[in-house]
Design goal:
It contains nine helices and nine strands. By secondary structure, it is α+β, with helices and mostly antiparallel strands. Strand 2 and strand 3 form a beta hairpin. Helix 2 packs across helix 3 and helix 5 runs antiparallel to helix 9.
Length: about 260
């Protein structure tokens, strides 16, 4: 790929992120836009001018603020498929499963339970279990810990006062130990479970965010603990986080840079 092509692709990504920021914030000035997207103010001006010329952005000259233009309505009218996180994530999950060779799941939270919406099995996966539609407890799953980490303090306190079933000797059922683990998830941006739900099974999870930054779903890679473990985590986490960011962007969440 040439330098010019690479620069052009980067500009497209930044322009899309600007539209996503405006969709989330409403009318806002160029300084805020540049800060949200992680670009220089002059770059933001240039991209906004292009978007304005195509009718995708309007500027209130008296206030110096930008907002989404009527051209966005025309684009939205072309969307015929209903919004479904399992639909918009499918291609990314398939690619991720091919890259890592393990099972990839998309999960959502319903109350204090985790529900698997979709599953893609990689070439190296040895599991025959189809988790789609199944429910698990939050504290024993990688996706569940992503949702626990997204809870506010009151909601997390409520969860920690409920009975926490033990599935294996490694399941965290002590509220203090689980709280400490959730704090690590918040700090690192991903979760890890090692044989906490099932002996021989390990998994890592990352958040999928909505337009407003809420954790709408979780993306997880699971596999045998002799392949998904502390030694292999760095490479798997890099792939996981990149895929989760890609799905979040498709879901409307602005990406920096």
């Amino acid at each position: 790929m040439s330098a010019n092509t690479d620069s052009g692709v980067r500009s497209v990504h930044r322009a899309v992120s600007i539209l996503q920021v405006l969709a989330r914030t409403g009318p806002v000035g160029v300084s805020r836009i540049a800060e949200e997207v992680g670009i220089h103010k002059s770059t933001a001006f240039r991209l906004l001018a292009t978007l304005e010329a195509r009718g995708l952005v309007d500027q209130n000259a008296s206030r110096g603020e930008y907002r989404l233009g009527d051209g966005v309505v025309g684009l939205a009218a072309g969307v015929t498929q209903r919004h479904d996180i399992s639909v918009i994530s499918r291609a990314v999950c398939t690619e991720l499963a091919q890259e890592v060779g393990e099972t990839v799941n998309i999960t959502v939270r319903e109350g204090f339970e985790l529900v698997t919406l979709d599953q893609v099995v990689g070439a190296s996966a040895i599991t025959t279990v189809n988790w789609t539609g199944q429910r698990q407890q939050l504290h024993a799953t990688a996706g569940g810990k992503v949702f626990l980490a997204a809870m506010n303090d009151d909601e997390l306190d409520e969860y920690l006062t409920t009975p926490l079933p033990r599935y294996t000797a490694f399941t965290l059922t002590d509220p203090a130990a689980l709280r400490a683990d959730i704090e690590r998830v918040r700090e690192l941006g991903y979760s890890y479970t090692g044989e906490e739900l099932e002996i021989g099974l390990a998994a890592i999870g990352a958040p999928i965010r909505s337009l407003r930054g809420d954790v709408e779903a979780a993306l997880a890679i699971s596999g045998p603990s002799f392949r998904v473990n502390r030694e292999t985590l760095p490479g798997l986490i890099e792939e996981l986080l990149a895929a989760a960011s890609s799905i979040s962007a498709r879901n409307g969440y602005p990406l920096p840079g």
